[in-house]
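Troubleshooting entry. The earlier prediction with pyridoxal-5'-phosphate gave an output that would not parse, so I re-checked the input for stray whitespace and re-submitted. Clean input:
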Amino acid sequence: MNFSQRTAWNLAENDLSRAIRSARESGRDLIDLTVSNPTACGFHQPSNLLAHLADPAAALYTPDPFGMTTARSAVAAYYRDLGVTIPLDNIALTTSTSEAYSYLFRLLCNPGDEILAAHPSYPLFDFIARLDDITLREYPLHYDPNADSHHSWSIDLAALAATITPRTRAIIVVHPNNPTGNYASASERIELQQLCRDRNLALIVDEVFLDYNLTTPQPTFATDAPCLTFTLSGLSKVCALPQMKCSWIVTTGPEALVIEALARLEVIADTFLSMNAPIQHALPTWLGQRGDIQQQIITRMRENITTLDTRLEQTSAHRLSMQGGWTTILRVPRTIDGVSFAAAALARDVIVQPGDFYGLPEGRAVLSLLTPTDIWRRGLARLPID
Ligand SMILES: Cc1ncc(COP(=O)(O)O)c(C=O)c1O
């Protein structure tokens, strides 16, 4: 059987995954500081969460490529709360942000065309790009430990511009980025928009973590813009409901480009019609209730950061500055007694994510701020940093 080249992945388990698996199989009680599934972190969703899936109206099939009007209105209301007005025609629902990326890659790219994404950033881009036969190119983010938290991470705009080739079609910005937790600053936003306008590129802005800021609220990119802009978000983070599979794309920018993009996007969405009715009927209620779960998560994030900062005093590790998002990065010793930091932590029954998973340099560990506070304390106490 000949399988496609694009699926010829190296599926071998890496050393750390193998070590974690065998530790679990041998019955060791591991303390996992990387759990990022919000449904497994002890947060409370309303007890009638699933009741909204039983709306009898969902018995009727009313296909709409971009999703039902009532569901899109709920997304528009979310943006109204952020201070922007989005016409319903500019909102397209998808089953995940990953699906949204895939639609956009197919809208914008021919096979072999290029999309730029930050380094370090979210590792799933590699997979989506490869499945859609496009090439992902990276532009660097720099970290300045001496800058204030709003400017500690910055986009190397000169390097980004130098990465653009005649085959480049779009720039992805994750706002705030995962795992670095930095939002694009006001000046970066302007420069990115101008660059995209001047070089005829689209801007794809992933705002799934937008609401989880620890400093001051940062504005959405889903507003008037000088370049074609696709803003992505969805329930997996906004409502901490990844299992419900509901995301969206908001298209903004110069009118003629928006009209052309939406017409083409509509055919892509119509080809799959992937949204299901019960979720769309439940969406207005779930989105309307997001304040409570977001508050629980932000409270957890703050508490975990306070605990972490206390734990790191007088140790060999320190926390990189961040503005928002669900992860935090530690600067840690590269190796301890000849093994990697993550392996040394595992030897003490603690799971941390090595930074290289996200393209961070050696000596970085990534932790999930969603970790339940008691597990967080126990895990941090055991980290090999003293
Ligand atoms: C930056 C970023 N975008 C998108 C997603 C996934 O969103 P979805 O569940 O809607 O595909 C994640 C998940 O961690 C993420 O970190």
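This one parsed fine. The mean pLDDT is 97.
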